[in-house]
Amino acid sequence: MGPQQKIILRDIGLLIHVPGLMALVSLPIALALAEGYAARAFAWTGLISLGLGQALYRLFQSPEETRLHHGMVVAALGWIVVPLLGSLPFLLIASHLAVLPQTPETVR
To answer: Which of 67, 72, 86, 95 has its Cβ near the most Cβ atoms within 10 Å?
Structure first.
């Protein structure tokens, strides 16, 4: 792997900390409202995002600075990766609610 890809992956690692932090910020609200299923979803999202972000950042550390073309690629990939990680709580909560017996068939 070349130095260009290392810089991009390192910066993506920094970027995907954002959905993880946002999920952890939402965690106390779910706990305060006694919604354990939502709290688990936010906790998993935070762990996955922060873990993946730290892994990318540490594995692909590079002393080189980010240049314009690196930033353009990181921004383009960020529009894909951040929404995917940000959708995890919705998917986890929906999968929990879909198996509940009181969920109407029209919602499933």
So the answer is: 86
